[in-house]
Specification:
It is a single chain. The protein contains 15 helices and ten strands. Bound molecules: ligand AN7. The site of ligand AN7 has 22 residues, from helix 4, helix 9 and helix 13.
Length: 350
């Protein structure tokens, strides 16, 4: 029997991690590429596939990068790690730190982190610090603090995070035999778009798998890479990507330029509509993840690109369970009925 060993062991010789480093893993990666037939038909593409990263151990793509960053932190002899987060990084850091016996501090913007992410950080035992400020404030603070304290910073400005996250590009090429024509993904701090582009280029050099055009998608209230300038008060219902000053913004622009791709902004309404569309195909993803599909739909509507004959992978970075309130906030059930068949029959007119 061969079992999936996690991203580090699976791609050991392609990951820049000191060979003596311990391998911390929760068997992340190996996420499915799920066809979205209705979306494919709407867009008129040959095939649209969802890389469902919400199926990672803590429910987001962050686990790929955290496996490598935490392994490297251990190798360096760190006793504690710290990160700023809009939520998913916090939950992932907390889990991998718990796994390896490291102490974990997470700094998050008060009131702006989805319930399932905050609960995750707490469940895995992270010291969770709320600030009256944005993610950008939090990242600035933890960067300054970790520069003079013995704390390993595990945000995606840590290069080892990218080493782990690039494995998603390898998996896609392994599944399809080649890179897709397009890859779409949400962009916040721009670590993931940088990772994918690195991964696709490395595989292309090694295995001649080609490279996709990259479509990065931001929320219109938090779209510094579209407007061209930092946003001091970013706002969007997609709290995962509520980021006004992306740490890897320049690399994101390069990825888009070199891949002949694009970065677009989509409204919160478009994000929610894309989330509903995916749910209608049985895939519940968090709002930020739905942005990747919203961006594709927006481009298709504009008619700037001809997607006929194209294979498109939309990366859905986090599970819908992370942010249940975005759904239940608008759910107002009728009062309960008596537990009687006649009442149930009256209720279900079908
Ligand atoms: C679901 O957790 O920044 O462009 O602190 O949670 O690499 O930042 C999360 C980002 C997309 C954007 N989708 O990725 C954090 C955090 C989801 C995310 C992104 C995030 P980057």
């Amino acid at each position: 029997m061969s079992t999936w060993p996690g991203v580090i062991e699976q791609y050991r010789n392609l990951i820049d991690l000191p060979s003596g480093a311990p391998v911390v893993t929760l068997l992340e990666g190996n996420t499915p590429l799920i066809p979205a037939p209705r979306l494919t038909e709407e867009i008129g593409a040959a095939s649209i596939l969802i890389k469902f990263e919400g199926l990672n151990p803590t429910g987001s793509f962050k686990d790929r990068g955290m496996a490598v960053a935490i392994s490297e932190a251990l190798y360096r002899g760190a006793n504690a790690v710290i990160c700023a987060s809009t939520g998913n990084t916090a939950a992932s850091a907390a889990a991998y730190a718990a796994r390896s016996g490291l102490k974990c501090f997470v700094v998050i913007p008060a009131g702006k982190v989805a319930a399932g992410k905050l609960a995750g950080a707490l469940a895995y035992g992270a010291e969770t610090i709320l600030i009256n400020g944005s993610f950008d404030d939090a990242l600035r603070l933890v960067t300054e603090l970790s520069a003079h304290k013995p704390l390993a910073l595990v945000n995606s400005i840590n290069a080892y995070r990218l080493q782990g996250q690039k494995t998603a590009a390898f998996e896609i090429c392994d599944s399809l035999g080649n890179s897709p024509d397009w890859l779409t993904l949400p962009v916040g701090n721009a670590g993931n778009i940088t990772s994918y582009w690195m991964g696709f280029r490395e595989y292309a050099d090694l295995k001649d798998t080609g490279t996709p055009r990259i479509l990065g998608v931001q929320a219109s209230g938090a779209a510094p890479l579209v407007t061209g300038s930092t946003i001091s008060d970013p706002e969007t219902i997609a709290t995962a990507i509520r980021i006004g000053n992306p740490a890897r913004g320049e690399q994101a622009k390069l990825a888009v330029q070199q891949s002949n791709g694009m970065i677009v902004a989509v409204s919160d309404e478009e994000i929610l509509a894309a989330q509903r569309q995916l749910s209608g195909e049985g895939l519940w993803v968090e709002p930020a993840s739905a942005a990747s599909v919203a961006g594709l739909r927006s481009l298709a509507r504009r008619g700037d690109f001809d997607f006929r004959g194209q294979t498109i992978v939309c990366v859905c970075t986090g599970h819908g369970l992370k942010d249940p309130e975005i759904i239940t906030d608008h759910y107002h059930p009728d009062p309960p009925i008596p537990a009687r068949l006649s009442d149930l029959e009256r209720r279900i007119e079908y």
